[in-house]
């Protein structure tokens, strides 16, 4: 960490600041520049709240040399993490293809879609039982009944189940029933929830918040990992920008960025990012060749009558065509489906 | 709601769409434009998921005529809402001045600050017992012990207490101990939490999410109100933009906007918005003359040693000077302190 | 265009508004909704300044049914535009691969890079002679001397030259010397410049502004096309968002969006978007499979000593490897290199 | 400047980097941290292109200790700059109140509005002769005829004239006819134009770009000042964010930020920021108490029939009421009108 001092800083105040920093077991190396003086802080600065230093009148600015995350940082964990779920692995050579409807609506719907996506090459089933909806008047999901239907679809197809947890109250049930616990974008910084997830071993699919930086996404992963659960899969699903033709702006540069900064797997959700089914194919293929470890895609057998997000759901036939292209593209970037 | 049709839409498909819409008890009035045809939907469209219509191949776009919120909408509730908290009112002529430290740290700290801010003119005490922190390694608040200290400070000063709730698990305790329950920006769309808040009567201070539009803020208020709790106070605390000199960008235009769209009170948090104590004075005064119903300001008696956010905390003397200016400005915009 | 009226609009004022609209040769079809009344405007509304209607007290909101651009709109021009440059075509099956250094620095540099990128499969040479730089103290380009060097490199390799025009003063020279005139992101709404470009026939590579919506990009294309020059190639080069790990956020969803909305070709610049050379490969490949009509990529033979943007330049060997992958990916999405 | 090295950087490569830096007359002070090593660069780093260092494989990141602007920096110019325009001063105790229509439309219109705003307390007249419009089909201003009408209005009222320059071709005419040359948001990084403005002495009102950081605004001022023209007045007019209820998001925190970072005056344009006339009053008052050096406000005597931006124009009576409030607020923040 680098502390930039004000040009005419009071010496007594600087001495106090130095004493404060040294009391945290950090060493200081000053550099006198042409116009400004800086203090280089050497030691474990992760325990220091950098912002508090800026409360000091003699401090002009604080600069960070190291990333604030440790367990999620590739610097200390050079090899890719591979997350095991049953006989599937996320983060290895094989792509994770997670497909299914936005929300579970009925036994027929979820089972039929599960069979269809499996036939096309998906290796995980998604489907919401608890739905975060902007409007209190919108369909909120089937809840526990939805979980039961997901279990039936899993039994029928063998596909492990990925579904969203919204409340710590349902955690025990999810540990029992679900294969991967999804944390939605709006809960990425629900720190109480993250702490609870650190206490379990179940793999977590952590979606990037709408306005979360890549660093903040990794800090939320760090919350879970610091608690003891290292089975974290990151998911980019579009960020909020000024552009409103698409629901969000899919940030595919997050793929190489996260591969550089972290060892955790990163998968892409083109359905929520764009909010338009006819954009999904194009961006799903782009994600794969950009180096994503997998995709999470909404597929519905009757989008026109879906209870939620039909506008961004592929029909099974369209998904099948997409998978056929992905099977051709994957080997070129050293991946398998 | 307006449905814009594709220029060469299949007539059979349009007929199906019309039937679907009419099955929701809505009437359709078509208008044939120069290049495009639109369908005007008449009736209660709030129950219709507009996005689903866009799943339809014959639909080019859907436009919204009405706001999706009802209870929070000034259209149906022309007078300002006034929220009563003990003998204080938020949303009337008198400004709500909520002041105190970022986090409760000790009996001496919170009581001393409470006395100081009261003496300067604050009529509410703020202080975090449960702290949402980006880093799992940062101070997370004193928890229940913090609530006890807040109660002592209230006893000593008579100031009602505003503090943040992070988990439904603590709700009962907060109903008992706290005067206004604050919901932080990161939980603005924690819908499970919002639903619980709708079941109680305690006033809620709902902070705008970092990337929430004004409409989404009002939709989150609608969640609480739809559940039965109409005591909602909105709070603008800065939104996330590309500018990173400030922690966030304070959106003061939200004040006239919300006054136009809704009857709910709106208060401003310049401390979190800017993240720099020396900016607070300027923006606090601006908020008052722009028409805010109140302010929430961080005040700490020893910012250099604060356990959290010292860089954005005013010292009691600086707060006192600010209040002295606000007392002069308020009457010019027909407010009292 | 749809005009939403205020619920309690004064009838005399509405009558005046109706008269104003009808005086523009537009017909009005009103629809009385449950809470609000709307006026549907039928006719050529492109001549009407919609915003002005909002000056009217009785108007609640104005909604747009049609896009404000005509000549750039696929609605009126269903087939893809193909822009011819010498014996090359942009917008057809063959990808446009535009490669070269950020700025022209010397005869050796530009010629060597030109030969290298041609050998790897590029069909256009890029290189800045006039450089827009944030700092007045930074290298500003070789100017006319740079144009001469570009011409020599073209003579040597046969590659058509793409370079940025910053001022109308240099237009004549560019028409003579250059094959494609690039308009940089910062000049996308330099309307004086756009008007001049409408008067010529030379193909224009129009880069999307840092904070321009897709609609605004198309409106800037419309400026040029309305003037008479239909040879416009669009370029997505990253937009400004809150994420600052990358220089900008590359918006690949702009590819399917623009393909839907417009008939103009769209190419992608991953170098400026990310600002990091090690991200370029991943996103260049993604752009191709997402459906881009081409790429514009910075290649420098000595990035460590480049006078500009070395951090985002590929070395010729890295570019060659990238092209080798692109040659394999292109046929899968029905493209050739 | 601080260069953070990669943890396992090749020593030969580091030695080359060190040699490169030292060849620029900079000294290096290394600090070995716990996990990473940094190089502190001492000397005039403004001539060094920091980004180029990131082209180097051994470099992890570059951090900036100093701001990249010198002439606009308060560090080297502690006192506020005061810009003289005739017998008016911008940047002193007296507020600059610049008012007038969006565009000059006729002799009657501009003269009548000029008289009205002067009577209410404005000390400058604004009015566009050349208008930057998103649509090529919209009214583009009266051009030179507009300048003539502005001169007549100035003659009649004595108010100095502020109007926008869009092209270097009109510069000579503007120097002769105009008192303050306004550079619009879309031209803030039209570097060719900025360079020309550096060669003259006429005061420049430089508007912040829609997606420009405060630092970039100051860098554009630096362009003009580096050329020799130190008469720069900055203007915040709203930035582009995800919120689209308002045209842009007015960033009032730019006022204290710019006051800290720079000695240049800063004025606020609430009309363009919000795009809604009924928001202007609230935010204009807020700007004054936040410490702005002035306001630029659109006033039109017939907004319903304005040729441009009527929706954001105040009527003269509303402007008069606003000024009456501002006259009361100004003294409380030590300003005069």
Automatic annotation (TrEMBL), chains A, B, C, D:
<feature type="domain" description="DAHP synthetase I/KDSA">
    <location>
        <begin position="88"/>
        <end position="327"/>
    </location>
</feature>
<protein>
    <submittedName>
        <fullName>3-deoxy-7-phosphoheptulonate synthase</fullName>
        <ecNumber>2.5.1.54</ecNumber>
    </submittedName>
</protein>
<dbReference type="GO" id="GO:0016832">
    <property type="term" value="F:aldehyde-lyase activity"/>
</dbReference>
<dbReference type="InterPro" id="IPR006218">
    <property type="entry name" value="DAHP1/KDSA"/>
</dbReference>
<dbReference type="InterPro" id="IPR041071">
    <property type="entry name" value="DAHP_snth_FXD"/>
</dbReference>
<feature type="domain" description="DAHP synthase ferredoxin-like">
    <location>
        <begin position="1"/>
        <end position="67"/>
    </location>
</feature>
<dbReference type="Pfam" id="PF00793">
    <property type="entry name" value="DAHP_synth_1"/>
</dbReference>
<keyword id="KW-0808">Transferase</keyword>
<dbReference type="GO" id="GO:0003849">
    <property type="term" value="F:3-deoxy-7-phosphoheptulonate synthase activity"/>
</dbReference>
<dbReference type="GO" id="GO:0009073">
    <property type="term" value="P:aromatic amino acid family biosynthetic process"/>
</dbReference>
<dbReference type="InterPro" id="IPR052899">
    <property type="entry name" value="Class-I_DAHP_synthase"/>
</dbReference>
<dbReference type="InterPro" id="IPR013785">
    <property type="entry name" value="Aldolase_TIM"/>
</dbReference>
<dbReference type="Pfam" id="PF18152">
    <property type="entry name" value="DAHP_snth_FXD"/>
</dbReference>
<dbReference type="InterPro" id="IPR006268">
    <property type="entry name" value="DAHP_syn_2"/>
</dbReference>
């Amino acid at each position: 960490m680098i502390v930039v001092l004000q040009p005419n800083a009071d010496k007594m105040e600087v001495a106090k600041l130095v004493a404060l920093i040294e009391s945290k077991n950090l060493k200081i190396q000053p550099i006198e520049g042409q116009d400004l003086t800086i203090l280089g802080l050497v030691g474990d600065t992760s325990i220091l709240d950098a912002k508090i230093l800026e409360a000091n009148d003699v401090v002009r600015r604080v600069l960070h040399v190291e990333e604030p995350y440790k367990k999620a940082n590739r610097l200390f964990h050079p090899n890719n993490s591979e997350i095991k779920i049953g006989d599937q692995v996320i983060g290895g050579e094989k792509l994770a293809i997670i497909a299914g409807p936005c929300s579970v609506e009925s036994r027929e719907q979820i089972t039929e879609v599960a069979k269809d996506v499996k036939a096309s090459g998906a290796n995980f089933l998604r489907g919401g039982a608890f739905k975060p909806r902007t409007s209190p008047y919108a369909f909120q999901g089937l809840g526990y009944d939805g979980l039961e239907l997901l279990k039936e679809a899993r039994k029928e197809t063998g596909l492990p189940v990925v579904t969203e947890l919204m409340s710590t109250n349902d955690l025990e049930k999810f540990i029992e029933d679900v294969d991967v616990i999804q944390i939605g974008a709006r809960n990425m910084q629900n720190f109480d929830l993250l702490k609870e997830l650190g206490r379990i071993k179940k793999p977590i699919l952590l979606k990037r918040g709408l306005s979360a930086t890549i660093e903040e996404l990794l800090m939320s992963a760090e919350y879970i990992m610091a608690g003891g659960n290292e089975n974290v899969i990151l998911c980019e699903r579009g960020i909020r920008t000024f552009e409103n033709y698409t629901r969000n702006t899919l940030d595919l540069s997050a793929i190489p960025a996260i591969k550089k900064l972290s060892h955790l797997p990163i998968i892409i959700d083109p359905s929520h990012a764009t909010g338009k089914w006819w954009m999904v194919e194009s961006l799903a293929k782009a994600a794969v060749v950009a180096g994503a470890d997998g995709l999470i895609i909404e597929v519905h057998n009757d989008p026109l009558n879906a209870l939620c997000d039909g506008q961004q759901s592929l029909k099974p036939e369209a998904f099948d065509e997409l998978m056929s292209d992905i099977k051709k593209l994957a080997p070129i970037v050293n991946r398998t489906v």
